[in-house]
Design goal:
single chain; 17 strands; five-stranded mixed sheet; 7 helices; about 325 residues; eight-stranded antiparallel sheet
Length: about 325
Amino acid sequence: MRLRIIGCLLIFMGCNSTSTPLVKPSNGNINTLTVVMPNLLWETEVGEAVRAAFAYPQEGLPQQEPLFDLKQMPPEVFTGFARSSRAVLWVGFGNEVVIRTDKNRYAAPQQMAVLSAPDTTTLVEIILSQSTTLIESLKTAEIAERQRRMGISPLNQNTLKSIFGIDIIMPSAYQLFKEDTMVAWFQREVRKGHINLLVYALPRNTTLNWESPLKDIIRIRDSVGKAFVPGRLDGGHLITEGAYEPYVNYTKIANMPAIETRGTWEVKGDFMAGPFLHYVLDDKENSRFLVLEGFVFAPSVAKRDYIFETEASIRSLKRQRID
């Protein structure tokens, strides 16, 4: 009788448990978006709108590469392993307009956007009108995922802490390539080239027009390149390519206002070039401008994800007060 009572109590406690159901881990390559929509719809103006909104060329690359790689599949195929995709866009027709974002619906971490409308015109309109917000959310999630992956085997270094009072996440494949009292240069080898991270500080009185900064940023980049990043040939050094005007945006990193500049670099007097991603952080607390730049040299291969890696590293920045 006593065993029967104990058994009933255990069953009752199990039925009232607040344990969270298991959620599958998500999967997928970085910057890949699974688009769930019927094949016939994918071939219409609705599919064209999705491609125009989410696969337009990433800014600042020497060759055209899409913002996201799109992997389209019809709803009947979106089952099992496919539902574990980390980034999902569901598009289709319905009786009313639906604009919804779900997190971790089938896996974790997972971002899923659902867009539906009763007719083609309305569906195209909401795809285009919602794309900016959705892209921002997707990119934030992709950066977090890239940081998580880098954090599995990070580079252990004290250079950035000792010189600048900061730390960032870098894969262990990086190594300190060059340093002096105010500049640190990290590099990792990749197929046919290398990825680089450059960190330096500028005095607070450095000339920098925050409202219209491009001219000053080019001047700063080129002067640092001349002093610290030489080319293969005598007299050669890293400069900003003059043929294409870089893209400038404003953002925040570690709660500091920042200017983001994307463009292409070249080596003066040599046939070397590639993309760069440059940030100037307004570090008022430490009376300085903090500069972090990623640049990639990898001829004849795609570079979007390499530059994205440098962005994820830079955006992982943590700081401490410098006395």
